[in-house]
């Protein structure tokens, strides 16, 4: 199930926990992630939920709308350093990227996607599942689509 929420209102921290994202940007984390990240520093939170290293890296992507609600998505994904240039057709770029990851042996399912505006950028928090394990991924980018795609990669690397 894919869920997307775009929220902008800050909310207070729960039960004395400090929300590292709210401290830094003035906007709270999604509820499910807030409890997990409760008393982390910003640096620790960023390292855990937006890993810079992992099995997967999105080098390049291009989106082509072809009508009838379909999108052709081209991407170069590095898997353990080896580049794979791939193409997929989907109703959106997140579906296309998860399909490409599946083709590379990483079958993840998206359970939740939340976006928060942070200045002129967008933060995306994405909850994914693989083999009955769940993990959040996070990305901040100028473009909301890029932010979403990089959050998918972050979650895939955590799983």
Give a verbal description of the structure.
By secondary structure, the chain is of the alpha+beta class. It contains five helices and seven strands; from the N terminus they run E-H-H-H-E-E-E-H-E-E-E-H. The chain has helices spanning 20-25, 31-37, 42-49, 93-103, 144-158; strands at 4-6, 56-67, 70-79, 82-90, 109-118, 121-130, 133-141. The protein has a four-stranded mixed β-sheet. A three-stranded antiparallel β-sheet has the order 2-3-4. A hairpin with a 2-residue loop joins strand 6 (121-130) and strand 7. Helix 4 (93-103) runs parallel beside helix 5. The longest helix has 15 residues, at 144-158. The model is unreliable at 1-14 (pLDDT under 50).
Q: What amount of the residues lies in strands?
A: 35-45%
Order of neighbouring strands in the sheet with most strands: 1-5-6-7
Tell me the total number of β-strands: 7
Question: Which sequence of SSEs, written as H and E, runs from N to C?
Answer: EHHHEEEHEEEH
What's the main sheet like? 4 strands, mixed
Helix run count: 5
Summarize the structure.
The protein is α+β, with helices and mostly antiparallel strands and 159 residues long. Helices cover 30% and strands 40% of the residues. It holds the Pfam family LeuA_dimer.
Q: What is this structure's SSE topology?
A:
Layout: E1 4-6, H1 20-25, H2 31-37, H3 42-49, E2 56-67, E3 70-79, E4 82-90, H4 93-103, E5 109-118, E6 121-130, E7 133-141, H5 144-158
Parallel strand pairs: 1-5
Antiparallel strand pairs: 2-3, 3-4, 5-6, 6-7
Helix pairs in contact: 4-5
GO molecular function: 2-isopropylmalate synthase activity
Pfam family, one: LeuA_dimer
InterPro entries: 2-isopropylmalate_synth_dimer (IPR013709), LeuA_allosteric_dom_sf (IPR036230)
